[in-house]
Design a protein that fits this description.
The complex is a heterodimer. By secondary structure, chain A is of the alpha/beta class. In chain A, 41% of the residues lie in helices and 16% in strands. Chain A has an eight-stranded mixed beta sheet with strand order 3-4-2-5-1-6-7-8, sandwiched between helices. In chain A, helix 1 packs across helix 12. Chain A is globular. The relative contact order of chain A is 0.17. In chain B, 23% of the residues lie in helices and 27% in strands. Chain B contains seven helices and 15 strands. In chain B, the strands form three sheets. Chain B has a six-stranded mixed beta sheet with strand order 5-7-9-11-14-15, with no helix packed on it. Chain B is elongated, with a radius of gyration of 23 Å. Classes of the chains: A alpha/beta, B alpha/beta.
Chain lengths: 271, 251
């Protein structure tokens, strides 16, 4: 039975698309047939992050308007056997998304045998974000450890539990919290909200903590989802998050400031 | 008291008046016809039955039962003068079409929003020894919510108490006609006794509120921060002012 997972946040620029690309790649690498859909009509960027922007012929809106079939629009990922991308339209706007159209596409993906369907939500709480979360079974709410991001994530959690299809049917969308751009040193200095603070305000189960990491920008420029960079902290943290999403118990890493060893400090002083 | 607190309190407590929300019983005259002659006659009879009760009582004209053509026929100014001759004081209208609302504004009457539709039979005012007619508030059982109240959500427990078994986020609002109990942090707004119950209280295990209010009296963030902030408290009205006192600690 396919699972529809929305990656949303409310606030913009916190790491939804980075997370969508990492998670869908991680699931596909673990052998699950996965599709990822860009719901940001007009401001699409999932195709850039996944390095398939030059292979976009038909998009999500074309499929909804029955101008193309799903098979024609889906782009097979070059690195991952089981991964398919459905890009957004760059020229249309969000009104092109309808409940019926989105439902039809999601059902068709399920019929094609996809196990996971990741919906990359745009920022905000308007129509595009609403369409992305409406049919979700599970939600990954991405938040930076920063007050406005946490407030917006709280708002989107409220919307998930009151306006989604599951909410209308009296059920709950399973919520996961993913904290991104976490800097343990700044937390230790009292400049940044800690994991415990964010968890307390949002009262949602922690899926993972992705540390602030330079590899994220590099990955996005190269069009390689950061989870492929197995040396980087962010890559490792995303791999842990995918494992937890699949039900495994994994310890949270990268939560504490690194303490440099004697030799590291010695070399720094002489450098 | 710090400078900012002083400034805050002078804005909060003006010297020459006190502004607060209030709920007052008034008689509602639901018009069923635009025939001023028969209105005058029947109203005079009603007033004559118990003149003391009706003397100088504020009156709200209701138009829910008056069809559109009759609303356009009604001479509101004449109706007001009929009422004043009977010592009734027209104060406001409720509902009514655009023309009547315009007339009301011209006559300096308040224009109230339409009320909920009730059975016409039950709302007839029975004068003699009875109190001015008030809609009986049906007491509902306490409303219990177990999930956090998120930013942007608003919960109103009509006719009873509200119990929240989780936190109320910043930007969320909880209201109740009765008491509010929050077994969690109150980071948003809580308004108890919204229909005027001054005995209503607010209880929470961590007071971090943006605003609290009881029966229209409110206390805002700047004052709340100096008043048992982040403690387990009960909030109530005493001497017309909001008081916050800590809940007994568990051992």
């Amino acid at each position: 039975m396919a699972k529809i997972i929305v990656v949303t946040s409310g606030k913009g620029g916190v790491g939804k698309t980075t997370t969508s690309s990492a998670i869908c790649t991680g699931l596909a690498l673990r052998g699950h047939k996965t599709a990822v859909i860009d719901f940001d009509i007009g401001l699409r960027n999932l195709d850039l992050i996944m390095n398939c922007e030059r292979r976009v012929v038909y998009d999500f809106v074309n499929v909804i308007n029955e101008e193309a079939t799903l098979k024609q629009a889906l782009i097979k990922d070059k690195r991952c056997e089981n991964l398919f991308i459905l890009p957004a339209s760059q020229t249309r706007d969000k009104d092109a998304l309808t409940k019926e159209g989105v439902e039809r596409v999601l059902n068709e993906l399920k019929d094609m045998g996809f196990e996971y369907i990741i919906c990359d939500s745009p920022a905000g709480i308007e129509h595009g974000a609403f369409m992305a979360l409406y049919f979700a079974d599970e939600a990954i709410v991405v938040a930076n450890p920063e007050v406005s991001s946490v407030r917006d994530s709280d708002r989107i959690l409220g919307i998930l539990q009151s306006k989604s299809r599951k909410a209308e049917q009296g059920e709950r969308v399973i919520e996961h919290l993913l904290i991104t751009r976490y800097d343990p040193h700044r937390v230790a200095r009292g400049e940044m909200l800690g994991v415990a603070d964010v968890e307390e305000i949002l009262a949602t189960k922690l899926l993972g903590v992705i540390p602030e990491c330079q590899s994220v920008l590099k990955a996005s420029n190269q069009g390689v989802p950061v989870i492929h960079d197995t040396e980087s902290k962010a890559g490792k943290a995303y791999a842990d998050a995918v494992a937890r999403l699949l039900g495994e118990q994994v310890e949270h890493r990268f939560l504490n400031p690194e303490h440099k060893s004697f030799f590291q400090r010695l070399f720094r002083r002489t450098a | 008291m710090s400078k900012s607190a002083q400034r805050a309190s002078s804005v909060d407590r003006p010297e020459s008046f006190q502004l607060k929300g209030g709920l007052f019983p008034m008689n509602l005259l639901e018009l069923k016809s635009a025939d001023l002659e028969s209105i005058q006659q029947e109203l005079a009879e009603k007033v004559a039955q118990s003149p003391a009760f009706f003397q100088r009582s504020p009156l709200v004209f209701g138009f829910e039962q008056l069809a559109e053509p009759e609303q356009n026929q009604l001479d509101l100014a004449e109706l007001c003068s009929i009422c004043r001759n009977l010592t009734l004081l027209p104060t406001a209208i409720r509902g009514g079409n655009a023309r009547l609302q315009g007339e009301a504004i011209r006559l300096q009457l308040a224009v109230l929003p339409k009320g909920r539709s009730k059975n016409s039979e039950t709302s007839e005012a029975t004068a003699p020894t009875a109190e001015p007619e008030q809609t009986p508030v049906a007491t509902s059982p306490t409303r219990i919510i177990t999930t956090p109240i998120r930013s942007g959500q608003q919960i109103y427990a009509r006719g009873g108490d509200l119990i929240v078994m989780a936190a109320v986020s910043a930007g969320a609002e909880v209201l109740a006609d009765g008491n509010i109990h929050i077994y969690g942090a109150l980071r948003g707004r809580a308004l108890a006794g919204v229909q005027g119950d001054e005995n209503a209280r607010i209880f929470c295990t961590s007071q971090e509120a943006e605003l609290v209010a009881i029966a229209g009296q409110f206390m805002v963030d700047e004052v709340l921060r100096t008043n048992h902030w982040k403690e387990s408290v009960q909030i109530y009205l005493a001497g017309g002012r909001i008081q916050i006192s800590p809940l007994p600690k568990q051992n």
